[in-house]
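Researcher: Good morning. I'm working through a list of sequences from a screen, and I'd like to move beyond sequence-only analysis. For each chain I'm collecting a predicted structure so we can compare shapes side by side. This is the next one on the list. No need for commentary yet; just the structure.
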Amino acid sequence: FNPAIVPVWCDAQAELAPLSTTLPASELGYFLPDPDMIISSPNDETKMRLAYSWLKLRELFIFRLSSRLAGSMPTLLRNQQWRHLLAVAAGIKYSAETESGRKHEEMRQLLVEYVDETRSGIRLKLEHLSSAPVTWRGRDFAASEELSPTVVQEIVWEISEISFRLELMALDRSLAPHADWEQRQSVLGDCWMGTPFHIDLSGTKSGLGRNNFNSRLPHLQSLFQVMKLWPGPKPILLDGIFPSRSQYIHGNDFQQAVLQVEESIARFYVRTFLNTFKCPATIPRLSV
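Model: Good morning. Structure tokens for this chain:
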């Protein structure tokens, strides 16, 4: 169910684990549900239910993230809010007299507002949401149909990848607020294939989550260039220039030099994100 995190990024994040219990309130919510929230349950049925519930809301939320309409600017939500949204989509009921019931109703009302303001033609009937079928990669799934572990893995990977892209953009804008944003978006866009919001799983042949070195290389180089502009002290390997094949006689030496830079990129990114937003970053997972 769980697409593995890219090892070098996993190691970088693990170094910061001791700090997780001492963090103040986060200054950033989640653009999309936390991928770990969907696959953290030991119960496989729960994982499938949460992934299915997300598919009911996916089109609406991705539209809102990608929309430039003033009325559809994204609202970042806390983990608990996402839990209640997925519960609304699943048709789970709470007593209106409880705190959970009140939070649940707040998220139901939020969905009503989102549907009302959406100008994309998306039709989301909240009264029938619990029994609504879903679609994934062109295939329809009935409410009674289980999602396979492979499908859940693809869904979690897409959530994680889009979240990483949007968090990187948010971090860059926070650290370089006076930069030419259109120019920065162009540079940031080279860190992945396609637009930040839409991922073609069948055509994902390159990216930071690819096992193949050459498939990662151009995106690592782009992320290196993005991070060069960030203020403050940087690791030595990020203060220089990105390795070039022409510098090395043997191709293996070039690859080892880039892998060292990749490690510096991952460690510097997760630390900078944590320092800026007071929460762990969503990091790249191996492509599925």
